[in-house]
Amino acid sequence: MNTSDNRFSEAERNGLYRAIHERRDVRSQFLSDPVPPEVLARLLQAAHHAPSVGFMQPWDFIVIDSLEVRQAVREIFEQENQKAAENYAGERADLYRHLKLEGILESPINLCITCNRSRGGPHVLGRNTILETDLFSVCLAVQNLWLAARAEGIGVGWVSILDQERLAETLELPDDVYPVAYLCLGYVTEFLPRPELEVKGWRSRLPIHELVHGNGWGQPLENGPLKTALDEQEV
Ligand SMILES: Cc1cc2c(cc1C)N(C[C@H](O)[C@H](O)[C@H](O)COP(=O)(O)O)c1[nH]c(=O)[nH]c(=O)c1N2
User: Fold this and answer.
1) Ligand 1 midpoint to CA 157 (Å)
2) Strand partners, 185
3) Which SUPFAM superfamilies does UniProt cross-reference here (predicted)?
4) Is the CB of 159 within 6 Å of ligand 1?
5) Where are the beta strands (DSSP E) in the chain?
6) Residue 94 domain-assigned?
7) In this structure, what CATH number is given to the domain that contains residue 159?
8) Which atom belonging to ligand 1 lies closest to the Cα atom of 202?
9) Ligand 1 pocket, residue 158 CB under 6 Å
10) Is 3 a member of any domain?
11) What's the rounded mean pLDDT across residues 120-129?
12) What is the average pLDDT across 78-105?
């Protein structure tokens, strides 16, 4: 059997890698143009087709277009962001305060992806030992949506500078439902070529060869074909 039989076509593979490499966290570039319902439906379907522990599908999607709700969430962000800024001093504090870290009011849609921690009953296959696997599953749904959105030309920004309890209260979540991701979605003026935090001088992408270890933590990858290929593909 030819090992390439199951491969996508070259154009399809290029499309997938393009979505991965050109996906951005967006907060400064949102347009107010509405996202058509059929496009949003495709994004939600992409999220719903993520893998999940024991096929638990612990996610729900709260689609928020109400200005009132968005304003309430924006206030939570403001308070938490003030606190976060106090972690830095001097130039770093100045830089932090100049970063735009949310697009809650500018984006036409806010979406909260939650995790229902009791979905599927008390014994979910694969979740007997590592309880957090339900949360991991929801993160994969977020990433599916994020990549599909990039292919649709829609920007997504994840806002985590939020007090979860206040967010849960604002969205009237039941006790066993945890707000994993608060996302802002919309068409954009542009997708930056690099992460905004890198463009603004906050932090850079680490070289991949420092992150790939051989056979155990801290053991460098030996010089060989994998190391060469990684170095050649560094982007
Ligand atoms: C769990 C989690 C939480 C957050 C983020 C991401 C993730 C995965 N990111 C986006 C983050 O800053 C961004 O992904 C990195 O800077 C890399 O940039 P690109 O996503 O490649 O553009 C993010 N960005 C932001 O402006 N405000 C925020 O609160 C958060 N929170």
Assistant:
1) 7
2) 109, 156
3) FMN-dependent nitroreductase-like (SSF55469)
4) yes
5) 59-64, 109-116, 154-159, 177-187
6) yes
7) 3.40.109.10
8) 16
9) yes
10) no
11) 95
12) 97
Note down the domain range covering 51: 13-204
Same domain, 141 and 210: no
pLDDT tens profile 143-189: 999 999 999 999 999 999 999 999 999 999 999 999 999 999 999 99
Closest Cα to atom 17, ligand 1: which residue? 195
pLDDT of residue 1: 59
CA 26 to centroid of ligand 1, rounded, Å: 8
Same domain, 24 and 89: yes
ipTM of the complex model: 0.99
Q: What are the angstrom distances between the C-alpha of 57 and each of 54, 62, 124? A: 8, 15, 11
33 in Cβ contact with 186 (< 8 Å)? yes
Residue 232, C-beta contacts closer than 8 angstroms, at least 6 positions apart: none
Q: How does pLDDT run across 96-124, given as a tens digit for each residue?
A: 999 999 999 999 999 999 999 999 999 99
Let me know whether 124 and 97 are in one domain.
Answer: yes
Q: In this structure, are 152 and 233 located in the same domain?
A: no
Instruction: Take atom 18 of ligand 1 and give the residue whose Cα is closest.
Output: 195
